[in-house]
């Protein structure tokens, strides 16, 4: 892992974005463009698994944003396979009314709708699903859902396997009855079907274990049973291009399973990667920024050359250039954008009309918090998961606004407020970015290794959004040294960050510049939760003298981000959104 872009895409040729907007086809379903939203667990369902107004608003926002196919999050075909609290239900007809509303909401917004059928297998617990978890073999499975607990699931008998295959087919038919255009069989990431495929987790010596042919039998029986039940319904088969650990399923086997799945009736192969047992960590399946752009493209390309059906690629493809190149270089027929659509639900519409997007950092805050038990949110876009709360109808209008500080909070505020106000963004240093310019020297950002390329792309995207909104950017100007610069504004927004207590600023800068914080023993200290909490919340304070200077100007003053209350970037950016949009969700 080194944060470099994927090898396949290192040429300097500019890709034609038009390819992203060509219609495509999966089975009998015609898609308006080549962008797919992959399955992402939201926890927006109610505790029993029923669709909520929150679920509808979340998916509607992505469909309105122009994505061709929305894949609704993992829903288990059996109660025993529910892998998270508040997981969406599809294992019984009583879920049909809600699922119908969900499919209709996606269709009404102009997208096609799919739903992922995924069974947790050994990767769940009795307290989550209410039944004894089942798996190909009774081996220990560490399960992190709110807390970590290792369980030993029941080994499935051949009769139990047949029952489960039937449950998949019934759920597939239920998805069709609900109005979905397609359903995706989740055979990746270490859940039940992937557990059968994975040599380390499948220790059976019957027809379902041992050789690859036997390990793939369960998956292929599911594909055939689903297609026999509803031949007209498109079926997408999602598998790992590689499990990323020595005893996992390797790429050559993934290639063979893909060929078999297509022959068994799959209408598309969706190639992801990573497993709960991956090395260096389970984070591989949702590649953090230090895996670079497009880490799974090599697997998608290899599989695409071998199967007669379309291939969907996924994994850090949110840079429009990277997404277009993935298609142009023949890695895939469709690109799936997960986190990029959390960061900016309008990605497709904006890229299609040449507008800038809010880019995903690859910080994995969304998934880390979700796995810890929280609803789905995004660090750079607090409206995600709160679509109903952020109605975007408040905030200042038709004002002249001076924003002081072009760090993440100031840039975010200026870009949002600039659409309906006349905004000037002042930054005393020659460039924007604030703390994000130095963060790649720290050992961690949230829970991932920070990489400069990702923060630079994010800051650039915010600057482009500001330009699009008509914001005047004035860098290398400190209006607090020359207050005349602030004359004539209706509102001054202070986003100048916090200051270090006890003269720590010089020490922190020195340590970051020296690289010592990324080396032992300081690294251990800097990575510890206690130290980080102290660093963010206690070691810094508001710049009171600056605030009192600005308040004396006699205009409306708003203080946002760290300048308001030192903390983490997530809070600062959320605060910027709320100030600009006039909401508190
Ligand atoms: C919060 C979150 C939840 C996810 N849940 C699922 C899931 O339920 N099923 C699945 O197959 N993948 C899941 N994924 C993985 C995504 O589908 C996707 O493969 C991954 O995020 C990489 O794509 P991206 O770089 O475009 O985000 C999840 C990802 C995130 C961020
Ligand atoms: S939380 Fe981070 S990784 Fe997740 S979508 Fe937002 S920016 Fe991307």
From TrEMBL:
Organism superkingdom: Bacteria
Domain NADH:flavin oxidoreductase/NADH oxidase N-terminal stretches: 20-355
Pfam families: Oxidored_FMN
Molecular functions (GO terms): FMN binding; iron-sulfur cluster binding; metal ion binding; oxidoreductase activity
Cofactor dependence: FMN; [4Fe-4S] cluster
Keywords associated with the record: Flavoprotein, FMN, Iron, Iron-sulfur, Metal-binding, Oxidoreductase
Record-given protein name: 2,4-dienoyl-CoA reductase-like NADH-dependent reductase (Old Yellow Enzyme family)
Organism expressing this protein natively: Limibacillus halophilus
